[in-house]
Design brief:
By secondary structure, the protein is mainly α. Helix content is 63%, strand content 0%.
Length: 174
Protein backbone atom coordinates (compact mmCIF):
# COMPACT_ATOMS: atom_id res chain seq x y z
CA UNK A 1 0.00 0.00 0.00
CA UNK A 2 2.92 2.33 0.68
CA UNK A 3 3.89 2.13 -2.98
CA UNK A 4 0.36 3.08 -4.07
CA UNK A 5 0.32 6.01 -1.65
CA UNK A 6 3.59 7.30 -3.07
CA UNK A 7 2.38 6.83 -6.64
CA UNK A 8 -0.82 8.74 -5.90
CA UNK A 9 1.10 11.60 -4.30
CA UNK A 10 3.48 11.78 -7.28
CA UNK A 11 0.62 11.67 -9.78
CA UNK A 12 -1.12 14.56 -8.02
CA UNK A 13 2.07 16.64 -7.83
CA UNK A 14 3.01 15.97 -11.46
CA UNK A 15 -0.55 16.41 -12.80
CA UNK A 16 -0.63 12.88 -14.23
CA UNK A 17 -4.42 12.65 -14.21
CA UNK A 18 -4.75 9.47 -16.30
CA UNK A 19 -2.36 7.56 -14.07
CA UNK A 20 -4.08 8.97 -10.99
CA UNK A 21 -7.49 7.89 -12.27
CA UNK A 22 -6.24 4.31 -12.67
CA UNK A 23 -4.60 4.27 -9.22
CA UNK A 24 -7.71 5.67 -7.55
CA UNK A 25 -9.99 3.20 -9.30
CA UNK A 26 -7.88 0.34 -7.92
CA UNK A 27 -7.82 1.92 -4.45
CA UNK A 28 -11.60 2.27 -4.40
CA UNK A 29 -12.12 -1.32 -5.58
CA UNK A 30 -9.84 -2.52 -2.78
CA UNK A 31 -11.37 -0.08 -0.26
CA UNK A 32 -7.93 1.33 0.54
CA UNK A 33 -8.86 3.97 3.11
CA UNK A 34 -5.19 4.61 3.93
CA UNK A 35 -5.14 7.25 1.16
CA UNK A 36 -8.00 9.38 2.55
CA UNK A 37 -5.68 12.02 4.06
CA UNK A 38 -3.83 12.44 0.75
CA UNK A 39 -7.11 12.82 -1.12
CA UNK A 40 -8.54 15.32 1.36
CA UNK A 41 -5.35 17.37 1.17
CA UNK A 42 -5.52 17.39 -2.65
CA UNK A 43 -9.16 18.49 -2.55
CA UNK A 44 -8.47 21.32 -0.10
CA UNK A 45 -5.27 22.51 -1.77
CA UNK A 46 -5.33 25.05 -4.57
CA UNK A 47 -5.27 22.70 -7.53
CA UNK A 48 -5.51 23.88 -11.12
CA UNK A 49 -6.01 20.54 -12.84
CA UNK A 50 -9.76 19.87 -12.95
CA UNK A 51 -9.30 16.17 -13.67
CA UNK A 52 -7.14 15.77 -10.54
CA UNK A 53 -9.73 17.59 -8.41
CA UNK A 54 -12.57 15.56 -9.87
CA UNK A 55 -10.93 12.15 -9.47
CA UNK A 56 -9.69 12.81 -5.93
CA UNK A 57 -13.13 14.09 -4.86
CA UNK A 58 -14.94 11.08 -6.29
CA UNK A 59 -12.48 8.63 -4.75
CA UNK A 60 -12.66 10.41 -1.37
CA UNK A 61 -16.46 10.21 -1.35
CA UNK A 62 -16.45 6.51 -2.28
CA UNK A 63 -13.76 5.53 0.24
CA UNK A 64 -15.01 7.64 3.14
CA UNK A 65 -18.64 6.50 3.09
CA UNK A 66 -19.69 3.63 5.30
CA UNK A 67 -22.13 2.17 2.76
CA UNK A 68 -23.62 2.98 -0.64
CA UNK A 69 -26.26 5.27 0.89
CA UNK A 70 -23.95 7.20 3.23
CA UNK A 71 -23.70 10.85 2.18
CA UNK A 72 -21.54 12.06 5.06
CA UNK A 73 -18.56 12.74 2.73
CA UNK A 74 -20.78 14.98 0.60
CA UNK A 75 -21.84 16.95 3.67
CA UNK A 76 -18.23 17.13 4.82
CA UNK A 77 -17.12 18.66 1.50
CA UNK A 78 -20.31 20.58 0.73
CA UNK A 79 -18.92 23.96 1.73
CA UNK A 80 -15.74 23.82 -0.31
CA UNK A 81 -16.33 26.59 -2.80
CA UNK A 82 -14.75 24.85 -5.79
CA UNK A 83 -17.14 24.16 -8.65
CA UNK A 84 -15.52 20.91 -9.82
CA UNK A 85 -15.55 19.51 -6.25
CA UNK A 86 -19.30 20.08 -6.00
CA UNK A 87 -19.99 18.70 -9.47
CA UNK A 88 -17.94 15.58 -8.67
CA UNK A 89 -19.89 14.98 -5.46
CA UNK A 90 -23.13 15.10 -7.46
CA UNK A 91 -21.70 12.74 -10.07
CA UNK A 92 -21.02 10.10 -7.42
CA UNK A 93 -24.66 10.31 -6.30
CA UNK A 94 -25.86 9.52 -9.81
CA UNK A 95 -23.28 7.01 -10.99
CA UNK A 96 -23.46 5.02 -7.75
CA UNK A 97 -27.28 5.33 -7.42
CA UNK A 98 -26.96 6.64 -3.88
CA UNK A 99 -30.23 6.85 -1.93
CA UNK A 100 -29.71 8.97 1.20
CA UNK A 101 -32.21 9.39 4.02
CA UNK A 102 -35.26 11.56 3.42
CA UNK A 103 -33.82 14.46 5.42
CA UNK A 104 -30.52 14.23 3.54
CA UNK A 105 -32.42 14.21 0.23
CA UNK A 106 -34.16 17.44 1.23
CA UNK A 107 -30.90 19.09 2.26
CA UNK A 108 -29.11 18.06 -0.95
CA UNK A 109 -31.95 19.25 -3.22
CA UNK A 110 -32.18 22.55 -1.34
CA UNK A 111 -28.42 23.15 -1.58
CA UNK A 112 -28.02 22.20 -5.26
CA UNK A 113 -31.38 23.25 -6.76
CA UNK A 114 -29.80 26.20 -8.62
CA UNK A 115 -26.19 24.97 -8.65
CA UNK A 116 -24.56 25.82 -11.97
CA UNK A 117 -27.51 27.86 -13.23
CA UNK A 118 -25.12 30.63 -14.27
CA UNK A 119 -22.88 28.51 -16.53
CA UNK A 120 -22.90 28.85 -20.29
CA UNK A 121 -24.46 25.62 -21.53
CA UNK A 122 -23.03 26.32 -24.96
CA UNK A 123 -19.62 25.25 -23.64
CA UNK A 124 -20.36 23.15 -20.55
CA UNK A 125 -22.89 20.57 -19.46
CA UNK A 126 -25.11 21.21 -16.47
CA UNK A 127 -23.42 20.05 -13.24
CA UNK A 128 -26.69 18.72 -11.78
CA UNK A 129 -26.66 15.78 -14.22
CA UNK A 130 -25.50 13.29 -11.54
CA UNK A 131 -27.97 14.59 -8.98
CA UNK A 132 -30.87 14.37 -11.44
CA UNK A 133 -29.88 10.77 -12.24
CA UNK A 134 -29.73 9.83 -8.54
CA UNK A 135 -33.23 11.21 -8.01
CA UNK A 136 -34.71 8.14 -9.77
CA UNK A 137 -34.45 6.32 -6.44
CA UNK A 138 -35.36 9.23 -4.19
CA UNK A 139 -38.69 10.31 -2.70
CA UNK A 140 -40.84 11.86 -5.47
CA UNK A 141 -42.24 14.56 -3.19
CA UNK A 142 -38.72 15.77 -2.42
CA UNK A 143 -37.35 15.75 -5.97
CA UNK A 144 -40.32 16.47 -8.24
CA UNK A 145 -39.89 20.26 -8.45
CA UNK A 146 -36.14 19.92 -8.93
CA UNK A 147 -36.58 17.43 -11.77
CA UNK A 148 -39.31 19.50 -13.43
CA UNK A 149 -36.95 22.47 -13.28
CA UNK A 150 -34.17 20.37 -14.86
CA UNK A 151 -36.45 19.49 -17.77
CA UNK A 152 -36.77 23.21 -18.58
CA UNK A 153 -32.99 23.70 -18.81
CA UNK A 154 -31.54 23.62 -22.31
CA UNK A 155 -29.18 20.72 -21.64
CA UNK A 156 -30.28 17.53 -23.42
CA UNK A 157 -28.46 15.01 -21.18
CA UNK A 158 -29.87 16.71 -18.06
CA UNK A 159 -33.38 16.73 -19.54
CA UNK A 160 -33.08 13.05 -20.43
CA UNK A 161 -32.04 11.88 -16.96
CA UNK A 162 -34.58 14.20 -15.28
CA UNK A 163 -37.45 12.89 -17.41
CA UNK A 164 -36.51 9.30 -16.60
CA UNK A 165 -35.97 10.04 -12.91
CA UNK A 166 -39.49 11.45 -12.73
CA UNK A 167 -40.64 8.01 -13.96
CA UNK A 168 -38.42 6.40 -11.26
CA UNK A 169 -36.19 4.91 -13.99
CA UNK A 170 -32.41 4.82 -13.80
CA UNK A 171 -30.67 5.33 -17.14
CA UNK A 172 -27.22 4.52 -18.39
CA UNK A 173 -25.07 7.58 -17.75
CA UNK A 174 -22.45 9.04 -20.07
Amino acid sequence: MKNRTEEIEKSIMRNHDNKLKKLLKEAVLENDTSILAILKNAIETDQTNGAIISETTKAYFRLKRKNIHDCSPLFELMNIDVYIVQESLLDVLGYDKVIPSLEEQKTIIEKYFDFGAEIDLKYYSDPRYGLAAACAGWDVEVVEQFLKNCITIKDVPLQYVAENSLKKKYVRLR
